[in-house]
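2024-03-11 09:14:02 INFO receiving multi-entity request
2024-03-11 09:14:02 INFO entity count = two
2024-03-11 09:14:03 INFO echoing inputs for audit
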Amino acid sequence: MDADTKHDRTVEDCIKNCKPVTDYVLDSCEAIGHTIVNLFLAVGRLAMFMAQSVLHVFLPPFFPRLIGRQLIDIGYYSLPVVGMTALFTGMVLALQSYTGFARFNAEGAVAGVVVLSVTRELAPVLAGLMVAGRVGAAMAAEIGTMRVTEQIDAMVTLSVNPFKYLIAPRIIAGTLMLPVLVLVGDIIGVFGGYIVSIYNLGFSPGNYLTQTWNMMETIDVVSGLVKAGVFGLVVAMLGCYHGFNSQRGAQGVGAATTNAVVSASILILIFNYILTQVFFS
Amino acid sequence: MTTTTDQTAKQEEKEIPESCKLQLCGVKKSFNSKKVLRGIDLKVPQGQSLVVIGGSGTGKSVMLKCVLGLLHPDEGSIMVDGRETMGLDARDRNRLMKKFGMLFQGAALFDSMKIWENVAFGLVQGRGMDRNDAQAIALEKMKAVGLDEQVGDLYPAELSGGMQKRVGLARAVAANPEILFFDEPTTGLDPIMADVINELIIKSVKELGATALSITHDMASARKIADVIAMIHEGRIIWCGPVGELDHTDNEYVDQFIHGRAEGPITDIIGKAA
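2024-03-11 09:21:47 INFO inference complete, emitting structure
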């Protein structure tokens, strides 16, 4: 009898303590709404940061010495990684396209496929991703560390605008140097395809070069360089943004670095689609 | 809780001279729902050194950052030389910053630059001074805080905490500012080095004829560098008076704080909140 009463009470308590279904629905709606509001807030903050950064790119004072240092950091020191990526991508592309085209007796199209793929897509996208990993992460970590150790605050108290001193030189250098890197990457990538085609697949050097030259148009290279400029801007902007807004010490700097690389990589892929649509639709 | 604080803690106001260098009126600042500053009223007379004391999390650093323009207060007024500084545009704010010098708690030295470049940074980048001229001034200021020329070519990571604070002080006074701010100047230093920094602060303030606003919870430092002491609690200034009156006040909050007692009104509030 006692056990039954206890059981009844437990069931009653459970029913009393249970939240109505409407509460769960409302909680879910609240969580979704909160996420959407936060998303809009983040986009708004990024837009404000971008507007402020771009404004300071064009307004004096300028820091040519710092711009020069960033050009070297982003451009010169990224050359090995971009060069290696382009070289092996061109080589693999030649091998794979040859294997595929051989099934349709279309081996002659290898040179064209290599040059178009490298100049239009692979060099800009892979260089952008590589620079996002190397430079975007370094920017976020450096500026983030400066933020959490109050170096940026110190800069403000010394009458130096951090947007002009830290952000603008990086954005200028990122936007200018990625096209240069991609141009070098184009040449190295095509050269990689040439090496494999000539020494591994037995193509005639003269024919290969003629086909490459005939297939390539100005728009192929230009579209790749425009993409590279946009990707450079995206990498520098997001590296600076996440670093500038990093919080909570070492953990915050780590999170800023990760966010800078991930968000820049995703945006590079999204912008790549948009720009391809604009140029070639 | 706040009402009790207001009722029990009578603010003892010292007669302030007419020439007020820095004045805060009803400054409020919240972070989301957390109210950090609940209406700060403070006057720093020309040429005086005012030290704000208070426990951790009472709003000292936030108050200082509001004055420096690093944070934007939600309400209130901050006046420098009788001019309102809230809502200044970038150019006027930049002009105002040239009056300020700041020593940060962790010195906040630029770790990618040499020591002399750190000291000369504001002169070269902020005021467009020639690098050689700025280097000469930097070395002179370093000498004034007891650092020799060889230190100038080192990097911040190669210096001890005390030496970094000296560099921070040299950088703060490099451009001969009118108002100096010190954020916990002796935190993390041994008592002897803390006293050396205190002496240097007094010397620098006197030589420049500057007005100083410091925040600290180091009572030895506060007694040494202050002309006037104010105590902040729960985002309000609850006591303000000359340093000599500190030991004779009947304000129980101040009394508990300066004697470092575990029991008293401050601890009761913390206990209740927990």
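2024-03-11 09:21:48 INFO post-check: The radius of gyration of chain B is 19 Å.
2024-03-11 09:21:48 INFO post-check: The first helix of chain B runs from residue 2 to 8.
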